[in-house]
Write a structure and sequence with these properties.
By secondary structure, this protein is an alpha/beta fold. It is about 30% helix and about 20% strand. The structure holds adenine.
Length: about 230
C-alpha cells in the first residue's frame, strides 16, 4: 500500500486526475491512497497568506518558510516519508526509471510550488528529491505532480492486470513501443501486417521487437546511445 500526500495551494487542480480509470482502480483496490492538503490551512494569517515578496527584489512572490515547515512537520508526525519531492523546473528530469523506483516506495510527500517557487531553506531542510517533468515552465507544480503520480501509480504492483501490463510500455526496456492494430484488418485499403494475423506468438514477438528497435532508431536514437 502506497500513500502519496500532496501539499498545494490549489487542491482543486488535483481532484479530478486521480478519479479516473487506472488511478481510480488503484485506490479502490487499496493499493494507493492520494491525499490532498491545502497549504492555506497553515497560512500565517487570516488572509490565507502563504507567499511574500522576494529578498533582493524582483518580480514574483516566493512561498514562505513558515506555512511549508509547519505543514511538513505536522504531516511527518503521522508518517515517515521515504521521499519528500519538490516539483520544480530546475529539478532532475523525470523518466520511466525514476517512476519505477518511486513505485516501490511506501510514503511520498509531494510539494507543489507556485509563483517564483518556495524559499530555498525549505528545499535545503526537508526536500529529498527535486523533479522536473520537462524543460518548460508550468504555472504551478500541480499538473507536474499529477503526471508523476499517474506514472508511479500505474506501476504499483497489482494495479495493472495482464491486459494493461506495463511490461510492454515504451521505455520499459529503453525502447519505444511497437505499432499496434485492431479491427478491421483492412481499413480503406490499409492492411494490418500479415504476421499479426497469422497467430504465431514467436513470430509476433520477434516482429514487435524489431519494430520497437526500428521506431527507437528513427525517433529516439539517444535511447540506443546512438545520438
Ligand atoms: N513547476 C513549474 N514547471 C515545472 C516543471 N516543468 N516540472 C515540474 N514542476 C514544475
Amino acid at each position: 500500500m502506497m500513500t502519496i500526500d500532496i501539499l498545494t495551494v490549489a487542491p482543486e487542480l488535483l481532484e479530478s486526475p486521480f478519479q479516473h480509470s487506472i488511478m481510480k482502480r488503484a485506490q479502490q483496490k487499496g493499493l494507493l491512497t492520494v491525499r490532498l492538503f491545502n497549504l492555506r490551512d497553515w497560512a500565517i494569517n487570516k488572509h490565507g497568506q502563504v507567499d511574500d515578496y522576494q529578498y533582493g527584489g524582483g518580480a514574483g512572490m516566493v512561498m514562505m518558510c513558515e506555512p511549508l515547515a509547519n505543514a511538513i512537520e505536522q504531516l511527518q508526525k503521522e508518517r515517515k516519508y521515504d521521499e519528500i519531492i519538490y516539483m520544480t523546473p530546475d529539478g532532475t528530469t523525470f523518466n520511466q526509471r525514476t517512476a519505477n523506483r518511486l513505485s516501490l516506495k511506501e510514503n511520498i510527500l509531494i510539494i507543489c510550488g507556485h509563483y517564483k517557487g518556495i524559499d530555498q531553506r525549505i528545499r535545503d531542510t526537508y526536500v529529498t528529491m527535486e523533479i522536473s517533468i520537462g524543460d518548460y515552465v508550468l504555472s504551478g507544480g500541480e499538473l507536474a505532480a499529477a503526471v508523476v503520480v499517474d506514472a508511479i501509480g500505474r506501476l504499483i504492483p497489482g494495479v495493472l492486470n495482464d491486459e494493461t501490463s506495463a511490461l510492454t510500455d515504451s521505455f520499459q526496456d529503453d525502447l519505444l513501443a511497437p505499432p499496434v492494430y485492431t479491427r478491421p484488418a483492412d481499413f480503406r485499403g490499409m492492411k494490418v501486417p500479415d504476421i499479426l494475423l497469422q497467430g504465431d506468438p514467436k513470430k509476433v514477438e520477434d516482429w514487435r521487437h524489431e519494430q520497437a528497435i526500428l521506431r527507437t532508431q528513427q525517433r529516439r536514437p539517444d535511447l540506443l546511445g546512438e545520438e
